Amino acid sequence: MSALTKKERMAIPRKPMPVQEPEARVLNFEEVATGYTPEMAQEEAERCLQCKDPKCSQQCPVQVDIPQFIAAVRDGDMAEAVSILKGKNNLPAICGRVCPQEVQCESGCILGIKGKPVAIGRLERFVGDYELSHKTLAMTRAASTGRKVAVVGSGPAGLACAVDLGRLGHDVTIFEALHLPGGVLAYGIPEFRLPKDVIGNEIKSAAEALDIKIRRDHVIGNTLTIDELLEEFDAVFLGTGAGLPVFLNIPGVNLNGVMSANELLTRVNLMKGYRFPAYDTPVKVGRNVAVIGAGNVAMDAVRCVRRLQAIRAGEDGDAGEVHVVYRRSADEVPARREEVHHAAEEGVIFDFLTNPVAILGDESGAVRALQCVRMELGEPDASGRRRPVAIEGSDFELEVDQVIFALGTNPNPLVFSNADDLKRNKRGTVEASDESGLTTKPGVWAGGDVVTGAATVISAMGAGKRAAADIHEYLCGLN
Amino acid sequence: MYRILRKENISDVTKMVIVEAPHIARSAKPGQFVIVISHEKGERVPLTIADFDREAGTITIIFQEIGKSTIEMGRLEVGDSFMTIAGPLGHATEIKNYGKVICVGGGVGIAPVFPIARALKEAGNEVISVIGARNKELLLWEDRMAEVSDQLIVTTDDGSAGRKCLVTEPIRELLEADPGGFARVWAIGPAIMMKFVSYTTKPFEVPTTVSLNTIMVDGTGMCGGCRVLMADGRAKFVCVDGPEFEGHDVDWDSLLSRMTYYHNEEQTAVQHLHGKDHKCRLDKAVEEGVR
Ligand SMILES: Cc1cc2nc3c(=O)[nH]c(=O)nc-3n(C[C@H](O)[C@H](O)[C@H](O)COP(=O)(O)OP(=O)(O)OC[C@H]3O[C@@H](n4cnc5c(N)ncnc54)[C@H](O)[C@@H]3O)c2cc1C
Ligand SMILES: Cc1cc2nc3c(=O)[nH]c(=O)nc-3n(C[C@H](O)[C@H](O)[C@H](O)COP(=O)(O)OP(=O)(O)OC[C@H]3O[C@@H](n4cnc5c(N)ncnc54)[C@H](O)[C@@H]3O)c2cc1C
Ligand code: SF4
Ligand code: FES
Question: Which residues form the FAD-binding FR-type domain (chain B) (predicted)?
Answer without folding.
Answer: 1-95
